Predict the 3D structure of the following.
Amino acid sequence: MKYGYFDDEHREYVITRPDTPLPWINYLGCEEYFGIISNTAGGYSFYKDARLQRLTRYRYNNAPLDVGGRYIYLREDGNPLYPDRPLFWSPTWQPTRQQLDRYECRHGLGYTTIRSTLGGIESSIRYFIPLGESLEIWELTLVNQRDQPASLSVFPAVEFCLWDALDDAANFQRNYSIGEVEVVDGVIYHKTEYRERRNHFAYFACSEEPAGFETQREAFLGPYRGWDSPAAVVAGGLSNSIAHGWQPIAAQHIRVQLNPGERHKIVFLLGYGENPAGDKFDPPGSQTLNKRRVVPVIQRYLRQDEVEKSFQALRAYWDGLVGKLQVTSPDIHTDHMVNIWNVYQVMATFNFSRSASYFESGIGRGMGFRDSNQDLLGFVHLVPERARQRILDLAATQLPSGGAYHQYQPLTKRGNNDVGGGFNDDPLWLVLSVAAYIKETGDWELLDEPAVYDNQPGTEQPLYNHLQRSIQYILDRLGPHGLPLIGRADWNDCLNLNCFSDTPGQSFQTTTNKDGKVAESVFIAGLFVLVAKELVEIAAKRQSFAEADTIGNAAAEMEKAVWAAGWDGEWFRRAYDDFGDPIGSRQCQEGQIFIEPQGICVMAGLGVENGRARQALDSVYTRLATSHGIVLQQPAYSQYYLHLGEISSYPPGYKENAGIFCHTNPWIMIAEAMIGRGDRAYDYYLRINPSAREEIGDLHRCEPYVYAQMIAGRDAPTHGEAKNSWLTGTAAWNYVAISQWILGIRPTYDGLEIAPVIPVAWDGFDAVRIYRGVRYNIHVVRKGPGNQAHLIVDGQAIQGTVINISPKDTSEVQVSVYIS
Ligand code: BGC
Ligand code: NOJ
């Protein structure tokens, strides 16, 4: 069953019924002001930080689903004339859920438009955030399709969050007494805590003079009533309440008379404003909010021409971004994801890490160190300047030991241990993101940029020093088999081998009961080899040959350790536990084979020469692959094991306990491509590709345009059901797998490489890639069944598959690739 379709021309996903299995969301905003919006206008907004500066309320885990949003109510003021029509409805379906005659939601890149018709009143609301501004626009267009005049009332409404979303949901004894607003010239200003230490506020404005407003929630809804049936909407008028304490909202009343066929536009703004600490009040010394800075902004965006201009600018911005790589392949699902949705999701993961989605509450986690570094792998070509800044921000949270905080809060940019620390793989990912950035940009100077440790002024060292310490951190922590000690956990946050928690509710991510001197990770060993090889190349490019040798030797030693203790006979082992026993071995009763080391070790080149890579990947195929994707491990853990931690806390088939943890699947695709098996790589690619799963929407349930973190594995009763869409490393890694390894368009230090490993059945593909300012027009033709690529660059055959960096004034390069 499908709930919509892809409109490729407009780069939109069109949802054709409101009752999707779960709210299907989109993101508004690209820079600092952001919002989540569902296909029925649910969601919330925040400035920079989803936890600390949340503008509006949203009720997670609520019944019904998806409550709290950007709501507009339409009311039929002439209703007595049409007694068979509803008195009021939501043109976005929620929150009234009144049956609509027509409904359509278009999620586009950075905007959402919801259109509907009821009883001959057509409405369309376009929601977006103009580039460079900290406000969102809701542009409502009403059309009277009746043959009689219509008398309508329009009521927009939002509920303000008292900024800190966690406190807002918990500290009622205080919060019920602190709400404050001002209403001036029809604009509602939310200024809770502005009187004391905050210097920011929110506002809601409308392009028309409101007939009334409400700022106290109860005055709008009425006692014991919900958003589905506000008493004030039923009554058809607002009482101009001024909130003091309780729950501040912004609701307005706009009356509209429409002749037959008449169209009418109204612009609403929800925004965030800030004043310097010394200039908060106007006049100084009063308690009145200084509005001098914000009023001109409000006035500007209430004008329809400005709205249209800023919308077109947003469209152009996204055209430019997605235009950096466009492909025309024989497969529509590849094209959907590569050209539009996967790259769009990469932007979301770059912006939000794992903080704010329908599944991430915005209060649990900030920016992950491991997560953000991986997200950069798919992002570096999009906005390199922002990637550069992110790398430096991440490095500035690194600890002097080379270890890392697991996350930092975006507002403060300071690392913290709120969601644990001592994940021993963390620092290695920094090397991968830096390598990806340099390969994309050629900006070697980044390595000389000073970056502090642990945010401490005075500890500045060149970024390169951070990479060196990342490597050293692992070498300083080797275990009994010469493999890296795992610490709290490695990539698999739930393989908590030093935790040993028997206390209900204790966090697996912060509890440690062992000294951590025994449990080792084969995964980190593989990652170390991969990362060390990058660093060897980087060191050699910097003419530090001695250092390149030292790191190369360390990588060789690590490889030896893997072959000595990390190879199980048919696949790579996963780890050693605190008793020194192997995990992910045929000796184990459960958890005999894990996906992660098969992917990472082969990506690091282990076993590619001696056939073991092929053997490991064949084991993945026979033991882990399902038609919905590759599960994380098998057999699933059937009970809780004290010495394994959170992984065994999940029922079999979910999450790390043998779910299809989609993030890891592209590692296997890349590994398959590396050993030349394009059909296998591509087959895996399609199994989890959301567009390819669109037809099974009732089973998959999450959005068909973005990847989910997890699809339930074969041990779960719900095998094939997706959860945790949007914010997952799956986005960046799938983008890398398809674009760099299957299509084979791969940045290197020396130029763009084109080495496709595509399915045998493909007769080729076309692509345009903007790389270091040059447009590469790539035409790939298959002439034989293998993967040998022959490149003709501007009419000249070249040696190998890397196209040298073009001379400065080159704007376009034509590349023909023959595969034999
Ligand atoms: C999840 C992991 C996640 C971790 C983050 C766990 O409950 O299963 O996927 O990485 O929490 O703290
Ligand atoms: C989700 C986390 O965001 C990521 O960092 C981790 O690697 C995976 N879960 C696996 O546990």
